[in-house]
Amino acid sequence: MRRDATQPARQEFLSHVSDPFELFLEWMQEAEAAEPNDPNAVALATATSDGTPSVRMVLMKKVEGQGFCFYTNSESQKGQELAENPQASMCFHWKSLRRQVRISGVVSELPPEDADAYFHSRSRGSQRAALASRQSRPLKSRGLLEVMVHEYELAYPDQIPRPPHWKGYSLKAQRIEFWQDRRDRMHDRVVFQHTAEGWSKTLLYP
Ligand SMILES: Cc1cc2nc3c(=O)[nH]c(=O)nc-3n(C[C@H](O)[C@H](O)[C@H](O)COP(=O)(O)O)c2cc1C
């Protein structure tokens, strides 16, 4: 049986909301309660300077000053694409809630202190793996990666240094669209566009 995820009391919710960040944080909180794992997982689309697109999942770790932040290896495919073309998009899909949020804008690097703080908040295992990984480049064998990780463990018994190419990025939103499933394909869609005067809001046909 198919469930209409929109509660009756919330039917006019999307038409009344005026702050896209308030709504995003509310939906994220609801996703944290509803999704079995990684409610902050998001598809991140980047493109080369000639417009060839690519997409992959990342974890969106925080929302800060209109920016949706994630961490990755700047030498990876996505890192190289962002260096040549900072335009990017994100798409959250919360299956259990039947919701989608699309965000697009320009990506910039977070300050190194921010990357340091997040890097050192992760488990030692994750830190070692980040240090050893030449993300997105060919790997001769799984064994080679495991040897490298072991060597880093011996080399850094105390604090593991953040590799300089492991960075934080912020996608500063220029457009945020919310989509909520409704019965009979009468879905709600509302898009917020950043303008000189603030956020404009438009309802869209489903
Ligand atoms: C749920 C999920 C979360 C992920 N989170 C991250 C992340 O936060 N940072 C990251 O670099 N890769 C993350 N990955 C791996 C990426 O999807 C991707 O394989 C990797 O970053 C290399 O992408 P690229 O070759 O396009 O640069 C995640 C994968 C999944 C499935």
Sequence-ordered SSE layout with sheet pairings:
Elements lengths: L12 H4 L3 H15 L6 E7 L5 E7 L2 E3 L2 E7 L3 H8 L2 E8 L4 E11 L2 H10 L2 H9 L9 H14 L10 E15 L7 E8 L2 E6 L3
Antiparallel strand pairs: 1-2, 1-5, 3-4, 4-7, 5-6, 6-7, 7-8, 8-9
This protein binds flavin mononucleotide (FMN).
Structural summary, described in words:
The chain is α+β, with helices and mostly antiparallel strands and 206 residues long. It has one domain: Pnp Oxidase, Chain A (Roll), CATH 2.30.110.10. Helices cover 29% and strands 35% of the residues. The chain is elongated and about 55 Å long.
Q: What oligomeric state best describes the polypeptide chains here?
A: single chain
Helix content: 25-40%
| CATH fold-level name | Pnp Oxidase, Chain A
- The helix-strand sequence is HHEEEEHEEHHHEEE
Number of strands: 9
What is the C-alpha radius of gyration, as a whole number of Å?
20 Å
Unreliable residue runs: 1-9
Which CATH-level-2 architecture?
Roll
- Terminal-residue CA separation: 22 Å
- Count of discrete structural domains: 1
Global morphology: elongated
For the record, what CATH class applies? Mainly Beta
Query: Number of DSSP helices?
Result: 6
Which class do the helix and strand fractions yield? alpha+beta
- Which sheet architecture does the biggest sheet show? 9 strands, antiparallel
Give average pLDDT, whole number. 93
Write out the CATH superfamily name. Electron Transport, Fmn-binding Protein, Chain A
Ions and ligands: flavin mononucleotide
Q: Per DSSP, what share of the residues sits in E-state strands of 2 or more residues?
A: 25-35%
